[in-house]
Amino acid sequence: MRVAFIEPVIANVEPLGIAYISQALIDAGHVVRYFEAPRPNLAARLEEFKPDVLAYSVTTGKHSVCRALNAELRKKINAISLFGGPHCTFSPEFIESNGKIDGICRGDGEDAMVDLLGRIERGEDYSATPNWWLRVGGKIYQNPVSDKRPDLDTLPFPNREIIYAENSALRANPIKRVLGSRGCPFSCSYCFNWMYNDLYHGKGKIYRQRSVANIVEEILDIKSKYPFTFLKFAEDIFGMNMDAKEFAEVYGSKVGLPFIGNMRPNVINEEKIRWFKKAGCVAVTLAIESGNDFIRNTVLNRNLSAEVLDRAITILKKEGIRVWTQNIMANPGETFEMAMETYRLSQRHRVDFGECFLLMPYPGTTVHDYCVKNNYFDGKVDELPPSFLLDSCLRFDSKREKRRLINFQKFFSFAVQHPRALPIIKLLILLPPNRFYVLFNRLYDNWRISRVLRAKMSAREFWIIARNNLMNIKTFILKGH
Asked: Could you give all domains of the chain from N- to C-terminal order, each with its CATH number?
């Protein structure tokens, strides 16, 4: 079958989920192409490709954009429409919102997609395909998920070529992304992981780690096709169950490129960081979320003491590792003074980049239930902003307090690096939220990221990446504001 994956924005990072599923489909004999909707002549290019399937990977907030795009495309293209991704996994009733949505995939998509298309191609009854909610003959069939694939080393490497064929800027980018593991055993209230773990209860390990040999093999494969100078491990928690010494020896000798990974403060220790530094680790992304104990542990369920946070950052700084903190603002019940505690934590440690998002009460998360129960949110999923970089859907004690929190998120990283600007920022955040603040946030944060990673690139590569990021901001971030 002919499958068209459609991304509604200009991507600024490789959509690895789509790349993994694409290679699984190609190995099964299907023809796959990737399209980005804002590029010229989407409908005409799709008609030329003649897809049997229109496929979308959907996050909450982006779901309404994909639904509308699909409805428009189906007026011209005779195909079935399949949706997957986090929104579909945790809100499968999305299939009921539009008659042109033919299937919703829940959970891991590689084997599920191959299984479904194989049944359709063979003319079999596919209504009972595991992992899918399917519209067949006017009726919706709801099927449970199958067991997880136990060994991630058996997955094919993600197909980057179909992504790069549509988005040449991602090919030119000297920063490449790899997933070394899947899953997370923790239960942060704003995250889907606890619900994902519940969905797969008894059907496989919560945390699955690829072998060092398999990870390095993929990296060397990428390097042989698309030379790059910097690597980002993009999984939830890098190296949690990894033998750090083995990784340092194998990666260090065979790859030897600088890299960054996401780590949780309570899994950081001096020995592990020293081995990762020896391998080439130059920076770590560390989720702090909030400097206020009540917000961090009661509302967000991080279960991390202030001492653990301070110790993790101190270890990283001592070893010369650059620190990129991630933070959440406009949490339910949060005041501006609570948000300032978050600011002061990153500023006190002089972190290299203090990234900040707005709390999104996504359906399926416990913070969603907390917000609805305590009257911070009415639960209407279609009213969620398309991105956690734009706006908040929560209720606060006053419009002034909400405005200050939303706007301070836009200036957070700048304020961390330039504390002398804080008095001016406190005046600016009293103004109504606006597109200029959003644009400033995106441009400055992209600049700070470049200073944390310090990836080697030519002037031409820098321009290509900058232009692609601007297109992403224009087609998604600013359009959604």
From this structure: 2-142 (3.40.50.280), 173-477 (3.80.30.20)
